[in-house]
Amino acid sequence: MLEKALIKELINFHNHSFTIIDKQENVIYWSDRAAEIFGMSNEYVIGKKITEVFREEHLVMLESLRDNKTIVKKQHKATNNIYVDIKSMPILIDGEVEGAIVSEVNVTEQKRQKEQIETLKNKVSVLSDNMKQLKNGNFRNIIYKSSVIEHVKTRIEKAAKTNANILITGETGVGKELFAKSIHDTSDVSGEFIPINCGAIPSHLFESELFGYEKGAFTGANREGNKGKIELAEGGTLFLDEMGDMPLDMQVKFLRVLQEKQYFKLGGNKEKSADFRLVSATNRKIADLLASDDFRSDLLYRINVVNIHIPPLRERPDDIESLFFYYLYSLSEKYGTDVKYANQQLINHLKAYHWPGNVRELINVIERLVIFSNEEALNNEIFDQYLTEVGEDAKQATLPSVTEELELKDYVEKIEADYIRHVLEENGQNVERASKALGISRPTLYAKVKRFGL
């Protein structure tokens, strides 16, 4: 009796949990701390086979018992929410294995804090990079980390030094106007940056909006007349967004402006000179515009002297994290809330999503996270709900779950293989595009494809 009482006091004396099984794999001791960690009472566990309580593949102490081994594992996943550091040893009597003992210490909080520290370190690094970019006056608000946007930036710097007409292409939501503004800021022009969205102006108002009008030009006109966008852009940059939506009759008139550098105001009879830098943008492909009956090819050739293509967000996953933290900070400030912690799982899921709405869609998702996350950490379920809402959850790249048998290097390789497979699928198995999206050379990608059997 004294021996049992002593053992009971000893196994409950330390902050660690202890479990002891005999040679037949029956639980003979179960500490109070073990009951607390696993939520199972002594009465329920003691006397049962350990395999009745836990799945056999999760029981490292069976290896100690069966193979006479001492096993140490860090951050073993004890339950769905609890991680423990674990040490398992065989119990030897006269050189024979007669049982096994395992001790565990709950390290869930330490693991969470470590994740927070790593994320915060990464956040500080990302925000530091962002601040450096924001201090660059010519590329304000263009947040990036990828080499593909660095290449775009280089092209802009070269093109901006010339007077050539520039056409920016890219999907909706990539931020074409920001890049157009950076062209203006990098240029030597002294005038203003004047944007006009060709798809947002009714066709019957387009001419007066672009060319302006003289007083009394039409019923309801401003008595003093009105300056058009061309006049406002004098000595500066005229930015025609969604150029592909310009009405066909206006295309003829605008082509003349580009050729003659002259135009008439609506209702006017005095020819005015046109002096502006032209930057246009469209979300339509060049080939589609050329094949279209509603866009003049001669105008396209005139505006597309230099083409600047902005790749979609899915082709530059490195930028997602930088954009995420930048807008997380700015939107938290907008709503007057503390900047909440984002765990690595959320970051990984954001990187894996293919973002059909590009940066604009990412900003909307971040705004949801900021508004509806009530705890100190962002609520991952909000993004999961969003994916279900837009019917895209099946397209999420799934990261491998952690198991005790998977060593770190194997886990990292599995993540790498799954992500390469995802990027290849998103780029239609095109190795050249996939290698650019991954930021590696084609030979390196070929080698990885062969290595992982993709």
TrEMBL record:
Pfam families: AAA_lid_14 (PF25601), HTH_8 (PF02954), PAS_9 (PF13426), Sigma54_activat (PF00158)
Domain Sigma-54 factor interaction span(s) in chain numbering: 142-371
Gene Ontology biological process: regulation of DNA-templated transcription
UniProt KW rRNA-binding keyword: no
Matches recorded under InterPro entries: AAA+_ATPase (IPR003593), AAA_lid_NorR (IPR058031), Homeodomain-like_sf (IPR009057), HTH_Fis (IPR002197), P-loop_NTPase (IPR027417), PAS (IPR000014), PAS-like_dom_sf (IPR035965), Sigma_54_int (IPR002078)
Location of the PAS domain: 3-75
Keywords linked to the UniProt accession: ATP-binding, Coiled coil, DNA-binding, Nucleotide-binding, Transcription, Transcription regulation
Coiled coil segments of this chain: 110-137
An annotated Gene Ontology molecular function: ATP binding
Taxonomic superkingdom: Bacteria
The protein, known as: Uncharacterized protein
Annotated organism of origin: Salinicoccus sediminis
Source taxonomy: Bacteria, Bacillati, Bacillota, Bacilli, Bacillales
